[in-house]
Amino acid sequence: MTADPEAAWPFGPITTEDYHTGGEPFRIVTGGVPDLVGGTVAERRLWAGDNLDEVRQLLVNEPRGHADMYGGFVTPPDDEGAALGVVFFHNEGYSTACGHGTIALATWAVESGRVPTPAGASEVSFAIDVPSGRLPVTVTLGPQGVERVSFDNVPAFVASTVQAPLTDGGHAAGAVAFGGAFYAVFTAGDFGLSVTPRDLPVIIELCRGMKEEINASGGPVHPDDERLADIYGVILVEEVDPAEVDLEQLPPGLGSDAIIQRNVTVFADGEVDRSPTGSGTSARLAVLHAAGQLAEGQELVNLSIVDSVMTGVVTGTTTVGDHPAVTTTVAGSAFATGTHTFRLDPRDPMGTGFLLR
Question: I need a labelling partner for 249 at 20 to 30 A (CA). Which of 3, 42, 111, 355 fits?
């Protein structure tokens, strides 16, 4: 007699469409879970944490995922002003923003037909509701399908300055900035590090410690929504010599005054973003603009630790609470990697899995 593999599992089987943006995975849940409860995406995020965490663990944890997996539950939008909504998840829980996930989700929405594409259109525009707000997106189409996605992010701002101790007794100066989530931004060279896979073990340990220390001493809180609080990730940045960049990797039409930098973001529980980090790009645009290093309309070419590319630009200025803020547009490309059906055999001693770092 064959055991029913779903007998002790209240969900599923769980179906997903997997994408990557700049090398960072994004697992889109397309079936096998109940509709998320709540009047808004922000409310559904809280509900998911209380009711769908077994699903998150199943899809993120090994042996079906890994410590750096990312994904999202597709939901209805907050109202008719957007095409769809999403609740993001990762190895620690549920994030308020995810730029690479937004790019992947917009790509999937068009490629799957969730968002209709007029015949002969060169681009499609719509909005996606995420926990931090509503994001207008523009999907650029080419002969072979989706080529690029840009999104207008929620206002970004510098919340405070911050210092991190150095081994010589000094301190490295950084900034805490919001781009949909809060990030602490530092210069990699101040710690004797470079943004390369070679230094990654040290980078992970350093950034995890800084995140814990900043949050323990009283993390930032968004002035308009107390649910948007605490440091989500730590970003290390370095300048890049344009002569070292593969020009074929860069999008066409870049301005001659574009700034080129490389960064790595360590977020959640030691998770490393393979992409340049979309919401982190907005946060860094706010930092650069506040420091007078980036003008409105001037582009930032943001490279990741694996040299994948996103671009960002400050499109205007505004305020958030008492903070000067900027509006930003971030762009990148996503690609499908697979279609999956996940199950949990009730005999499996590993259950919803485990994480190794």
Answer: 111
